[in-house]
Amino acid sequence: MGNLEAITGPGMDQVERTFERIIGSSAALESVLTQVEQVAPTNSTVLIEGETGTGKELIAHAIHNASQRCGRPFIKLNCAAIPLDLLESELFGHEKGAFTGAIAQKVGRFEIADKGTLLLDEVGDIPPALQPKLLRVLQEQEFERLGSGRTHKVDVRLVAATNRNLGKMVERAQFRSDLYYRLNVFPIRLPSLRERREDVPELVTHFVKIFSRRIGKQIESIPSETMVAFQLHSWPGNIRELQNLVERAVILSRDGVLPNPLHKKQTSPIILSSNVQSSLSPMNWEDSDRALVAETLEQTGWIVGGPRGAAAKLGLKRTTLLAKMKRLGISRPIVHERTSVPGGAQEDTQI
Asked: What average pLDDT does this structure show over 212-223?
């Protein structure tokens, strides 16, 4: 969980409960949690952007739990999972006989979420014909059920989530610009797991505890080779992929040891040398992290920045890697200054 010592407003117990399911302490995650703390007490609309599997629903729930609406309904709807001809009814409800198959009155998600929070996941999949009605309810907090002329007033805080670039969709006339600006009041971008690799050991440990208890297998040791493989993986499916792979590893485990569930072709081309491997001990995350960073620096000739640098290979920002090196006590005896080369260009940063 992130460092929450400087929070004002809700008591620490409440704040800790709000973020107790959010695992990690990386700078990228800390930035997200800071934004959650800033926007949660307001009623402003929030747009959560990020790749599939980065935890958008978890962040939406954290916003609700840290708001004055905590204790009121938290309702979610995946707009991509509902057939287009039924989505309007799901959002606003319908009266009996409103259309073929409407054999009873239905209350929509906006009504159910009254006084609470509504999460519209994959909001970029809302069809253009329905977007004006969504814009109206956001602006006026009122709507009509299908088949009814009666206007319903609601008090709903909307959180929208998407893995698509809505700005680009606006440029291509695939999404209404006025709705986009109304949704984009407070955008929060969730980092991919590649951008927060330092959180991988903590996430692995968390999911190992969950699945070992659920499956009924005791995991006593996570070999450093397994943890390094997790850290080197590109994680296209982000945290959801990691969760599933940890579950697979627990199922495959023998004698209390967590195996590496990744195929060799799934890991980064960075390979640890035998002397580094021998220095690693199970469950020692800091030693594993230190060895990974040191080996990567050796392989890149101690180049930190640039496309050929260690930061790019590890999926980190240059400043983040430098801070990590300082924390882990990693340094090179000889310092090479950044020098000019013919044509006025500069070589990659080395240390």
From this structure: 93
